[in-house]
Design a protein that fits this description.
Strand order of the largest sheet: 3-1-2-4
Number of helices: 4
Oligomer: single chain
Number of strands: 10
Low-confidence stretches: 105-127
Largest sheet: 4 strands, antiparallel
Strand content: 15-25%
Structural class: alpha+beta
Helix content: 25-40%
Length: 215
Amino acid sequence: MAGIYFLLENHPIDYDGAEYVKIGKTELLVEERIAGLQTGNPRPLFQINFLTCTYNQLSREEVKAHNHFRAYRVAHNTEWFKNIPLDMIEEYVKRSNDTLNFKSANSIKIARLNFDGEFITGEDQYPIKPKCYFYPERDAGTMREVGPKIIFRTKEWPTYGKHMILPQSTALNRVFISNKKSDEDREERKYYDKIKTQYRRNDYVDKNATNRLEL
């Protein structure tokens, strides 16, 4: 579930009377994100709040949260904050949720899949991630973010006249792919490049052998 998480350090080992909160964005379940962060932090982390938003809103909402609590920021360009009153976080999340829900309810067109596998979009793009064409159980991989817009991975593939990567592009014969499919394609290219290289080497050796025999 995409959103902005608020994590609190529980009883820091070097406790100095301060409460440290990490504010960041995630496309994963919060539990998965905590597990990833916990490996680099000896202090137990647990979730104290969560702001649900669309994937297209992630970066914008993260910046807004960081700016809102900037007076409590530990240092510039860090996601750690110190001694934020927990009721202030609760009020911020509630107000932000109300704003996002109102915006969503009043959008004329919200992105959704139609029966042709196309995305119809309005103000908010991708409330859910597009799915991989080859592995429908997997989300499309993220290539990069351009401002608030997320660019997902695609590859050339016959679509028989259907637009399969709307609203990202109106291009035909391209489909969304997951990171898994992207990795598989990369390994396949490396394999065939290796075969081509070996073939050229063998061909070179054969030609040299032929030339020596002729001499």
